[in-house]
Each structure stands twice: as C-alpha cells, then as structure tokens.
Design brief:
heterodimer; A: 258 residues; mainly alpha; MetI-like fold; 2 domains; 10 helices; B: 251 residues; alpha/beta; 8 helices
C-alpha cells in the first residue's frame, strides 16, 4: 500500500526538480516555460482570482455529473424494462455520444439563453453516456438462474429490479461513474472554452484563455494545475465511494486497501 | 395419488433443438426420486418444466392435489453475492412479503438445519463451495416446500464434500419428508440417495426405464460400501448403458 503512494510521489517530486533545474540552468524565460516554483507562487498570488473560477468549474462539473447519474440510471432502467424503448432510443444516445461536444457546443449556447445552463448541458452530454451504457450492461448481466428463482417465487418486474437487477448492476454503474466524473470535468472545461469567448463565463477555462491572450503563462499553468487537481480529486472520491460500496462482496474491491 | 404426473411432455426450443420427446413420469408424495441420464438428455429441462419455469411444447404436467410450494436448487449455488448468507436464505420469504422479524428467525433456523449456524453474516465469497451449496439448499427449504427440485446440485463439488452433502441431504429429507426430485449423471449418487431412479435417454430425451432401490433408510457410509449397494449400482449402470445404446441407435 505504501509503495503505491510513495512511488508516484517520489517520481513526481523528481520530475519537478528536473523541470526546475532545466529552467534555471537554461535560463528559460517564464513566458515560455515557468519553473514549478514560479507556478506555485502564481497560484498563491492569484488565488483570489483562481479560487472563484475553480468553484465555478467544479460546480458545473458536479451538477452535470449529478444530472448524468439521474438521467443515465433512469434511462438504463427504462431500457431494461422495455425492449421497445431501448430499441427506439439507444441509437440516439449513441449519436449524442459520438458527436464531438466542441461541434455542438455553439448550438447549445445559442439555444439555451443562459450561459450556466448551456455549460451544464454540454458537460452533461459528455458525462452521461458511460453511466447509461455501463448501467444497461449491469442490469443485463444478472445470473439467469437468479432470475429464474425470482420468477419461481412470483416476484414481479419491479421487485426483481429492486432486489436483483439494481444490486447486480452496482459495480458496472460505479465503473461508469468513475469515467463520467472525469468526462464531466472535461465537458465543463471544453464548454467554457467555447462559451468563454463570449466573455460571460468565469471558470478556469476562461481564465486560461484570458491568461493566454495576456501572455501570463505562469497563470495558465496555475489554472492547469487546479484543473488537474480537481480531476484527480474527483477520481479519488469516486474510487473511494466505489470501494466502500463494494468491499464486502465484489471481486474488484477485495484485498485492496485505499 | 401422485403429487405430480408428467404426461407425454415434449419440449422443442426456439432454436429447433428437441430437448424432450414425450417424456412421462409419476412422482409420488414424499418420495425421493433421482433422474439419471447422460448429459444433454433433457434432465434439467424436465426439472424446469415441472417448476413451471418454461412451458412444455406438447403434453401436460398434472398436479392432482394442486401445485404445491416448491424449492429449486441449481447446479451452481446461485447466491446473490452482495447479500449475507442470512439475507440470501431470507429471499423467498421476503418476496412473499413475510415480515422481517419472522423471516430472519426462519432463515436462521434453515441455516442451522444445513449446519451453517454462526455463518449468518458471511457473504458468499467468504464461504467454501460446499457451504455455498448448503446456503442454497437452506434457501430452497426455508419456505417449507412440499417438493424440492435439485438440478445436479453437487456436480461441481469435490468427492468428500459431495458425500457429506449427500448424507446430510438424506437426513433433512427423513426429518421433513418433502418430495425430492434429484437430477444427476452419477449412478453412485442416484443409488445412494433415492428410492427410485428414472433413467433417461438422450436425443430424444425421454424416460426409458425406472428402477426401484429398496434399501432401507437411514443410509449411511456403511450402505455406501455394502455389497447390496454395489449390486444396485451395477444394475443402474446397466440401465444407463441401455439408455445410451438407444441414443446411438437413434443417431
């Protein structure tokens, strides 16, 4: 367990040290490549501006993820209950998934008058598919004999769903959730990039664009660090959630300590 | 009067495979019947038809005294991995709307009967293969069924575990006298357990002959090593060989 934490941390510190050394020795100017220490100082100095931007991006990400969970699971359940609903709607879910978000973001921004709402829709569009497809897979991957057993004891569709299909789908759903967590952040950032040129949003992506125009490269790096940190935090939190829910019974979580 | 009468039942699956061809079989109240046959002879299909899990293509399944409560034990333990042993055994009661307090008590009792007292809070993955099968049997018996259908329940277990489960199953049967239908491809198992063996042939699957095993109960390890047992096994093996020869002739 300790090796799993120590090894990447040592590696990271080593890389940062090399980076710092290269920048100093080669005297690379900060507007080309700022050293890690400069980035860290910028992070502290610009915190007053970056923290609210981080909050805006995080808020959209979490809202989009929540919406993705609700819509994804509801649709998956609906699909699993009716073959016809699934046959009719699933292809469109795929179309939504394969259309690049950058390409439809301007349209969504034009349609939804509210910037926050359009960002939310974009991030949600990117995030919901893994949850949908994984949950459908899970709902279908139920032991056939267990289904027969439920039938034998006269459990209807509803109770089979609650007591059998949903618990059986949980590991699959959680796998999808981990992917969607990262995608929601990417969706939020991409949408901000597209919408940010309009000048209304103030998330981290907009701060990166703005810093780019002003050639404040250290601030770009600082915002980038925050986005990565947010992504890592989301991933770790969702992994922890998954571990807590599955540790008693699912092979993926057994013998593994976080 | 019979508990269930299978009359000329055929089953053709959607893919065209004929699993059963006018199979007939009477099952008496309280008896221990084994269905013996080579793999692919439609034994499992017959069991699923009796359970009502799949409808026959032709023929009828009659219940002269009405269809009783029945329990089913699959070849695999078929437990819900997320639920404790107790919750797994509780399931049939839960699906019938029995109140929590009562179903917990009855499930704990059923686990006790299969020798798993103290394992109520264990999850399936913490149990051995034999213990999982015991949980599965407890779950099938928790409703107090009149008829217990078992589909090669011990086929995946090692010899030692299997023998112990056979003995314990007989003990349970003698205590509560449910009607047992035990599907197996093992001659030794069928002779050891049952009062009567129905021998099936494959392609098409039908009941070819029946064989009574008159040995008295309780049957212990001593019976399993007796000359009587060996003779009966030889007899049953002969019948099974006949059944398989029929299959060759048909093919």
């Amino acid at each position: 367990m300790s090796a799993r934490i120590v090894a990447p941390v040592v590696m990271g510190l080593l890389m940062l040290a090399v980076w710092e050394a290269v920048v100093r020795v080669a005297e690379i100017p900060p507007y080309v490549l700022p050293s890690p220490l400069v980035v860290a100082r910028t992070l502290v100095d610009d915190w007053g501006m970056l923290a609210p931007a981080l909050w805006v991006t995080l808020k959209i990400t979490l809202e989009a993820l929540a919406a993705a969970v609700i819509v994804g699971v509801l649709l998956a359940v609906l699909f699993s209950l009716s073959r016809w609903v699934e046959l009719s709607f699933f292809p469109y879910a795929i179309i939504l998934q394969v259309t690049p978000i950058v390409a439809i973001a301007p349209l969504i921004i034009a349609w939804a008058n509210d910037v926050d709402l359009s960002l939310l829709i974009c991030a949600w569009l990117v995030a919901f598919f893994p949850i949908l497809s994984n949950t459908i897979l899970g709902l279908r991957s139920v032991d056939h004999n267990l289904l027969a057993l439920f039938e034998l004891y006269g459990a209807g569709r509803w109770r089979t769903l609650i007591h059998l299909r949903l618990p059986a789908a949980l590991p699959y759903f959680l796998g999808g959730l981990r992917i969607s967590g990262g995608l929601a952040l990417i969706g939020a950032v991409v949408a901000e990039f597209v919408a940010g040129t309009g000048g209304n949003a103030s998330g981290l992506a907009y701060r990166i664009l703005e810093a780019g125009y002003q050639l404040r490269i250290p601030r770009m790096f600082a915002a980038l660090v925050l986005i990565s940190a947010a992504g890592i935090a989301i991933y770790l939190l969702l992994s922890l959630l998954s571990h807590l829910l599955l540790r008693r019974w699912h092979e993926s979580a057994i013998g593994e300590d976080l | 009067m019979h508990l269930v009468a299978v009359r000329g039942v055929s089953k053709v699956f959607a893919n065209g495979i004929q699993a059963l061809d006018s199979a007939s079989l009477d099952i008496g109240q309280g008896e221990f019947l084994s269905v013996l046959g080579p793999s692919g002879c439609g034994k499992s299909t017959l069991l699923r038809l009796i359970a009502g899990l799949t409808p026959p293509s032709a023929g009828t399944i009659e219940w002269p005294k009405g269809k009783p409560d029945l329990g089913f034990v699959f070849q695999e333990p078929t437990l819900m991995p997320w639920a404790t042993a107790l919750a797994n055994v509780e399931l049939p009661l839960k699906l019938r709307g029995v109140a929590r307090h009562e179903r917990e008590a009855r499930a704990a009792e059923a686990l006790g009967h299969v020798g798993l007292a103290g394992f109520e809070r264990s999850h399936p993955r913490e149990l051995s293969g034999g213990m999982k099968m015991r949980v599965s049997i407890a779950r099938a018996l928790v409703t107090g069924p009149k008829l217990l259908l078992m589909d090669e329940p011990f086929a995946a277990l090692d010899e030692i575990t299997r023998r112990r489960l056979n003995t314990d199953l007989l003990e349970l049967w003698q205590r509560t006298r449910f009607t047992a239908v035990f599907v197996t491809h093992s001659v030794f198992e069928s002779v050891f357990l049952s009062q009567r063996i129905a021998v099936m042939s494959a392609r098409p699957g039908r009941v070819l002959s029946e064989l009574a095993i008159p040995a008295p109960y309780p049957r212990t390890e001593a019976f399993g090593t007796s000359a009587d047992y060996a003779a009966l096994c030889r007899l049953a093996s002969g019948r099974l060989a006949e059944a398989m020869a029929t299959e060759g002739a048909a093919a």
